[in-house]
Amino acid sequence: MGTELIPDGVERIDLKAALEERYLAYALSTITGRALPDARDGLKPVHRRILYAMRQLRLDPGSGFKKSARVVGDVIGKYHPHGDQSVYDALVRLAQDFAVRYPLVDGQGNFGNVDGDGAAAMRYTEARMTEVARLLLDGIDENAVDFRETYSGEEKEPIVLPGAFPNLLANGSAGIAVGMATSIPPHNAAELCDAALHLIKHPNATIEKLVDLVPGPDFPTGGIIIDDPATIREAYRTGRGGFRVRARWETEDQGRGTYVVVVTEIPYQVQKSKLIEHIAELLQNKRLPLLADVRDESTDDIRVVLEPKSRTVDAAIMMESLFKLTDLESRISLNMNVLSRGVVPKVMSLGGILLEWLEHRRVVLVRRSEFRLDKIKARLEILGGFLIAYLNLDEVIRIIRYEDEPKDVLMAAFSLTENQAEAILNMRLRNLRKLEEAEIRTEHDALVEEQGQIEALLGSTDRQWQTVAWQVSEVKKAFGQNTPLGKRRTTFAVAPTHAESDIELAMIEREPITVIVSRLGWIRAMKGHIADFSGLTFKTGDELRTAFHAQTTDKLLVFSTAGRFYTLGADGLPGGKGQGEPIRLMADLADGEDIVSVFPHDPERKLLLVSTEGRGFVVPEAEVVANTRKGKAVMGIDAPFEAKLVVAARGDQVAIIGENRKLLIFPLSEVPELPRGKGVRLQKYKDGTVSDVRVFAAASGLIWVDSSGRSYTRTMDDLREWIGDRAQAGRLPPPGFPRTNTFGTPAIG
């Protein structure tokens, strides 16, 4: 190939390097300029620019309102070159008392509601700052923070706000950047101030002490946190975790033994209208059999009424089922990933965030003090010139009246600075009265005293921290627990303990069904209890394995040749109109693993498990329930043997017959009860293996059914010849025993 020609002005760039460089620049821009809040003031750039623009518009808490469109226009025109709707959405959220624990914007008009309805257009709503926003901006005109040029270079904007309020933790934050995210729930400001004051005295305070002062989030919508203290401590220590929040509810007596449940608070960020729609949908789909109706009777306060199916319904169980299926319980994540010092993305602990805020407050204090000190020095310089002028008033007047360059002459005559001379020349005649001289001397003395105090403050770190502590205490007073805004709304509780089975039953409509299992392992459920199975159809080459009556609330146990138990929910079985579905689609049976038996679960029952090796043991049925699709290994099997039989262990005697047609009867007490294992030898064989086994009561005798359906009962006296010890070979069965070598009676019943 010839040499590739590159046109003039075109630069060759490696595509991989270019993509990496540009993607990194985009990622950093997203992280630092959009998604993550600053640890010092707790704000993202858009929120900081909104508050600064409102400050420039003089929308202080005591001033009048201005149209939101005016604020948005200034924000996007001067500071934030993005879409007006995105800026307005950010402003709206700062005004929503159900979204922000301590609103930064005081909104007038329709700013949305907890149902999820949006705010009115920005041309209709009006806004101004709240007292919290004023605290965040306090001192911004006193060199408290650094400024930078805006995107156009025509204006200046603050890099960070002075942040006299612990906004990051008090109001929380959420955002998704590139490769990282943040999620900080709101907290109680008074509790944060207590923790901050403790950290000022004890910078190395333990997380246990801090969590005693800040026990957990405080959501604007209230609710109840049900996590244990250890989990909360660990979340605050690492900066990662989450909180389970439940709705607050109570029962109201309706008379004649009836009641309703009233929900008065819902979890944070849950839309009430969608919550009620979801509950109604579950109700229609019969997923909430204990609930009869749901109504929204909310006005200004939340009031969701849940009507139980009957007066006998346990309210706690009904609510547990709702907590499992709906957003009446939700998980609020904690990921305290913030910009440390406004630059470095970092997951910080509770103490780390508070310490960074406190250090920022100390820096702001020093900068404001230095700013004030410079102002005092400049004023003292002017006042000193005024005092010299009063002492030499006649000469000063003469110089001003007759000299061509009075400023230079004044400076030379009285050793004045240029600023002092300029101030004297600009003095009004009315200020020459005697009273004004006394006022200047009073002001001078006061400023000298203040100057000394500021210089002492700047020279002592301890004094600086004492001042910061005083400022934090003032914030605590303004937002203490005894104030309407500062009172804790979210409480803590231990989740009530109920049997898991009771809760699961509460979520399933109880209806009779007939479960049908085919020989090839297909399963289905037909409505009602069917007595005649002759009309059932199956796929070609398949036939009925077993059929039994159950309820939709039942659990079904599947025992496999691998000695594993699998658990199916009867309510989740396919309908009986078709052929059903393979059990393998519902449980993860391994290749070569077959089904031994399927039966409804009875937690009070015990089972006798038997392998083809002739070994077995008794296991409580409550121990074999599996919680996953992979099942639960209960019986240990060594190849080439398999699990062969599972029967109900109801009685005190075991009857076992082998393929060699030898029958043995021995006490059930000789068989151990184990949660899992291989078991013990039940019967000895020279050839073949076990054929069938039954557990029966000696008082009732052994029953078997022949191929014609005739039933036979033999007492223990009749069976004296076959009674022996476990692991013996046995002998040929009594006359009339079925040639199939099976007892014919139900194995599980």
Largest sheet report:
4 strands, mixed
CATH topology tier name of the largest domain: Neuraminidase
What is the radius of gyration computed over CA atoms, rounded to a whole number of angstroms?
A: 41 Å
Q: Uncertain runs with pLDDT below 50, 5 residues or more? A: none
Instruction: Determine and state the CATH class of the largest domain.
Output: Mainly Beta
Number of strands: 34
Can you give the helix content as a percent range? 25-40%
First-last Cα distance: 85 Å
The quaternary state of the protein chains shown equals: single chain
Query: DSSP strand (E) fraction?
Result: 15-25%
The CATH H-level homologous superfamily of the largest domain = DNA gyrase/topoisomerase IV, subunit A, C-terminal
- The overall pLDDT average reads 91
Shape: elongated
Give the helix/strand class: alpha+beta
Number of separate structural domains: 4
Major sheet: arrangement of strands? 14-9-8-17
CATH architecture of the largest domain: 6 Propeller
Task: Please tally the helical runs, counting DSSP H or I stretches of 4 or more residues.
Answer: 18
